[in-house]
Model the fold of this input.
Amino acid sequence: MMDYSITFPTGTVKYMSQGSFAALGSVYDPSHCIIITDDNIAALYSSLLKTYKTIIIRAGEEHKNLQTIESVAQQLLQSEIHKKSMMIGLGGGVVTDITGFVASVYMRGIPFGFIPTTLLGMVDASIGGKNGVNLGLNKNILGTIRQPEFILFDPGFLKTLSTAEWSNGFAEIIKYACLFDANMFEELSKHSIEYYMQDQSSLNSLILRCVEWKNKIVLADEKENNSRKLLNFGHTLGHALENLYHLTHGQAVSLGMIAACTIAESTIKTEVSVKQRLLQMVQQYKLPYQYHFDVKKTMGLLKMDKKRNESSIDYILLEDIGRPIIKSLSFEVIEQILESSDHASHH
Done:
């Protein structure tokens, strides 16, 4: 597979689709780079990092906040990082989000690149130029849209992932299939996490297809005025659940997609078979499909979502697999449907 570049309104990204971390040094002088990574990755790959200046942050969504941003910025100053330096985020979505955010605002912007080490990072988090941090329970409420200079995909990093982390990534892969790619949905339904863990070329082509779908959408609507909103399928409720109940991103998105199908049955009369197929799929990829949550509390957080309007929110629903629509729904309607469905706990 070849490297290729895509130019977005906020910058050109070079995709190194079959790169290896070791080869990076031949493209970017290590003495001008600084790597941002988390303590998990630093422990696993200390030998790779020894030629680079490194800033290590604590792993986990709960550290994706302004305290971490401040600490990273202080360390950049101490390391004498300047406008011509290159910041490299090596890790999952939390690391790439923080790297992109700091690089966008440090000295009013310095170059940065990503090396995603998780499946979720490769198919979703590192792509599209959104960089953000959380404020309390409000997810990604502070952020920027700015593209990295490069994204290097080194599938070698996936070898150390737990099955839970594989599931986490497959939630986003299933999302793309539901939204845009009925053929991919079919393909996924024939396989399993174990299959893709063992079959490198099938996995590579799956990752590439997801990257292509996301780039196509982002190219058309980088600032999320229109079609990019589709990528929020499963995320509206998902983000609220993720933060309230400390679920993984994939678990939360899985529950959010199922709930969106329930909402679609009530509001746009989607066939029940769509949800049945999705239920089957998320179970196959070891993702949850029911969870008892407090509807009032969850709605409270959902109302703080950055995508809301006055009393409604644009919700992504499926008419069918591969046929998404954006529908403005009032918070009242959403709450009623969730209350009466089997997702919620009744207090």
